[in-house]
Amino acid sequence: MFKVVSIWNLRPGVSIEEAEKQYYEEHIPLAQKIPGLRKYTIGKGRGKDRPYYRIAELYFADKDAMNAGFASPQGKAVIADHGFVSRIADRIVMYFDEEEVKL
Fold first, then answer.
1. Number of compact structural domains in the chain
2. 12-32: pLDDT as tens digits
3. What is the pTM of this model?
4. CA atoms of 62 and 36, how far apart (whole Å)
5. CATH number of the domain that 22 lies in?
6. Most exposed: 59, 69, 99, 102, by fewest CB within 10 Å?
7. Strands, E assignment, the chain
């Protein structure tokens, strides 16, 4: 599997409640429509000194599937989601070939 990891903070002055509402009601539904998306997980940082507010992990079969997904109209809509992008800061996006380790 190929994984895209995005971590970010909120911009100073952005309401957590407003950001969460937009994220759950608008951004996540957009991302769920990306063609080829196999798995989608999100998390929220904990603790007073957390380095990042949120993380999202999007899984695809391979890098080509990820590229095709983000090149699609649905993928472009996620990237261009102004309601989301206007509220975040310090965003880092990383790409990984993922290998599952059996327990």
1. 1
2. 999 999 999 999 999 999 999
3. 0.91
4. 9
5. 3.30.70.100
6. 102
7. 2-10, 39-44, 54-60, 88-97
